[in-house]
Amino acid sequence: MTNARAENCDFCEIGHDGLVGGDPGLAARQFHGDPGTELGVYADIAPVKAGHLLLIASGHDLTMAAALAGSEERWRYVDAVREAYLRTFPGDGLTILEHGSGGMGHRHDCIEHAHWHLLPFECELKEIIDDDLRPAMAAGHVRKSRLSDMRALDDRYCERNYLLYLDHGKDPAPASPPARVWVYSLETSLPYQQYTRSVGYRYTAGVKGSPVSTLDWDWALHAGGELVQRTMTRQHEFAGHVDAALERTVSDAPGAMADTPSILAIA
Ligand SMILES: [Zn+2]
Ligand SMILES: [Zn+2]
Predict the structure, then answer these.
(1) What's this model's pTM, rounded to 2 decimal places?
(2) Is 1 contained in some domain?
(3) Ligand number nearest to the C-alpha of 60
(4) Residues bordering ligand 1, an ion, CB closer than 5 Å
(5) Residue 171 placed within a domain
(6) Beta-carbon neighbours within 5 Å of ion ligand 2
């Protein structure tokens, strides 16, 4: 975990007023914040669907692997967010995408400051990513690894350039169904600008049956609007679910920790 701030980084400006990160600004789009862990959840300014949230760590880490490394409190917060998400947006499932840009000299994604995209999909995006990256995998520029569980995104990935994929299904109960986690280690650029966002847009466009051009998912064209407003209506419900989950894990914690299953673990 680092606390350094980077100049001209929207996500380093969390908590400051103004139109940071689009309009409405990031502070106005906060779903939940945790002063203890300095993690927070925000509505994405250019959602691919209602319910598109971001989990952001304060401190300008380049990967969530670095932001979460060695912090039991931060992982517990992640678990509470996972549960709250599935309770707030029931029936949609949860897919997490991250472009970790550690060790990369150039960028091909939105903002390099470590963040996860929390997306209301069950498992639909996996195939798109595999199709996108298959040529690079065949050429040896991308290596795909399955992780045993979420916490296997450990120190080894802090400085790497990677794409993280996790899908969880729809049940908010711990490890039911178990999460599936893959990391694609990248020695090449991702094939589209704002790659994580493009995956959701292309899936959604495909479902509607209309083709989508690269410009159609440019964030500036989609920023704000009705999808953000619809997402924001769930803000208080989500915050209540996070608080309830945190309270439960804290009160369960003494003496019960050893038996607590890793919520994001594969059974
Ligand atoms: Zn930053
Ligand atoms: Zn992003």
Answers:
(1) 0.88
(2) no
(3) 1
(4) 6, 9, 11-12, 60, 113
(5) yes
(6) 110, 196
